[in-house]
Write a structure and sequence with these properties.
Length: 264
């Protein structure tokens, strides 16, 4: 395995020494500061973190190495390679269907305050944005953004696992993590399904990526109103992409009572 290298820009290009991050809303009621001063990247500390990440990468490579026909890891185990990444290089996604109540957020703060970070944030690196996009762990990330004591406790660094996947796979990865814990909102899931359908994904691919049954997908289509867009198309078990469905719906409206050609 190649030695771990940083995808980020040079330390000097990261962020200022101190960064003010104002959080609006019910901060006072939640017992947190209205403005969190995220510790900035300090070159001397970053050098230590870089060395730590290199050592972790070397240890992971050791697990992958073979002794004769034997090796510890038979498949990828991202959690065995947790890196420390400054929060300024981490970005929340805009599609997470997992919702957490304010009370649970306060409990999460208490947990991290008392026990530290015991679970890493899961991410996929986006080379265009030059950021680590969160797949799972948004609320662990948000806790640092909202509470000064948490930000100070790790000098602004978060434990992060980086999935070696294309950035286009991040939505499906997020949903799989949420569904595995039984935490996802119907509205959020419906929004994701709509986005994937709109991008041209077919039903079978969506079900496979998100771990949905056909009946679940049908309900989510109904909830989002996607199915109403094609109400003129007769029911069929055949899977169509959004573009195909639109074409079939247009044909049905223009030729009422006529069967839709199979090739359309």
């Amino acid at each position: 395995m190649a030695k771990n290298t940083r995808n980020e820009e040079d330390v000097a290009d990261y962020v200022p020494k101190r960064r003010s991050d104002t959080i609006a809303g019910t901060a006072s009621a939640e017992g947190r500061a209205t403005s969190v001063d995220i510790p900035g990247v300090i070159p001397e500390l970053q050098a230590i973190v870089d060395r730590y990440n290199e050592l972790v990468a070397e240890a992971y490579a050791l697990l992958e190495s073979a002794v004769g026909d034997l090796s510890v890891l038979k498949s990828v185990m991202p959690v065995a390679r947790v890196r420390l990444i400054h929060i300024s290089q981490i970005q929340a996604n805009d599609y997470n269907p997992n919702a957490v109540a304010a009370t649970e957020m306060k409990l999460l703060h208490t947990s991290i305050s008392e026990d530290g970070y015991t679970q890493p944030v899961v991410s996929i690196y986006d080379p265009e944005a030059k950021k680590y996009i969160i797949v799972d762990g948004f609320h662990r990330y948000t806790t640092m953004r909202r509470y000064q004591d948490i930000a100070d406790s790790t000098s602004g660094y978060l434990p992060v696992v980086v999935l070696e996947k294309d950035i286009a796979d991040r939505i499906a990865s997020t949903v799989r993590h949420n569904r595995a814990r039984g935490k996802h909102s119907v509205q959020g899931m419906g929004s994701l399904v709509f986005q994937m359908l709109d991008a041209g994904e077919d039903d079978a691919t969506i079900c496979n990526k998100l771990g949905l049954e056909a009946e679940e997908l049908a309900r989510l289509k109904h909830i989002t109103g996607f199915s109403k867009l094609f109400k003129d198309v007769p029911y069929s078990k055949t899977v169509y992409t959004k573009t195909q469905a639109e074409a079939r719906a247009e044909y049905a409206r223009s030729h009422p009572g006529e069967p839709i050609p199979e090739g359309l």
